[in-house]
Amino acid sequence: MVSISQIRASNARIDETHTPRVAVFVGATAGIGRAALTALLSKRLPIKLYIIGRDEANRRSWLEELQQSNPKAEINWLEGQVTLLAEVKRLCLKIKSHEESIDLLFLSAGFLPFDGRHETSEGFETSLALLYWSRILSIHHLLPLLIMSSSTRPKYSPRIINILGTGFESADIPLDDLDLRNPQNFSFQGVVKQAGTLTTLAMTHLAAEPANRNIVFIHNHPGEVKTEILRNGWGVKPAGMPVSAKTGMNPEMSGERSLYLISSAQFSGKGASLLKDVAGGLTVSKTDSGALFLVDEKIECIQQDEVLGKLELRNAKETVWRKMQEMLAPYL
What we know:
Blueprint: H1 4-11, E1 22-26, H2 31-41, E2 47-53, H3 56-69, E3 73-79, H4 85-98, E4 104-107, H5 126-150, E5 159-163, H6 188-207, E6 216-220, H7 251-263, E7 292-295, E8 301-302, H8 305-313, H9 316-328
Parallel strand pairs: 1-2, 1-4, 2-3, 4-5, 5-6, 6-7
Antiparallel strand pairs: 7-8
Helix pairs in contact: 1-7, 2-7, 4-5, 5-6, 6-9
Pfam family, one: adh_short
GO molecular function, one term: oxidoreductase activity
InterPro entries: NAD(P)-bd_dom_sf (IPR036291), SDR_fam (IPR002347), Sec_Metab_Biosynth_Oxidored (IPR052228)
């Protein structure tokens, strides 16, 4: 376990060589993403940011506060609805038209389906559109810019940080129903397992591709964080829910932990140097780089050997990748 004191000591070592120069945040207007963005800007280092979100008019005072917190930052707001994959494609293409490389893609947008299954106008289940489909599509479109970054920064590896649910992977997800369209497959717990498992499988596939070997892929379960996720009309905590509005860490501490994921050499050996009592992390392939890091709520790297082994027997990674490509084809 990496303690909060160790995290703070590591974050105190951060300088320009350990942080992104250009970063994209999807889901930073609230909760964990907002806390991560705030923590990153608190270092007052030069950075160019793209923040994707909705309701710019209602975010102006917050954006002004962000700018005041770090006058060296260039903050770009991109208005868009990321439950819609056509919008995700449009936003990513806009970033690509302005940038030759990016150093960080931070994904945390999402909500929990407490009131049943609902579909977007494109036919995807809404919570899975945020938790999985839009995220993997963003990764697909922005990977070329991350690859370009990896060739220009010898002391920092570009990173994709996906805040979701490692540790909730399941070997028995329905591989023939990735979007849980069958009512028998859909439930709150089913969405949590499906999103977490699909994320790990897809990111494992991408991280193993030779062209991506210098990119740090992190799938992180943040633990219990006091966010707004339970205050949007739901009054109870469903069984098995992985976050809590009443217990757990405050967003500020979550932001410090996210900043550690963004900057620490624990992941790939590049970044803010490790403290003497903190070991380098291992990927799902038991290597120190070149594969996916599964990071749990203790900031420990886990391998999930048993569940991934069972999924391998089902040829799950290849099946998910093929079906995912088919479903996302109109937006690639």
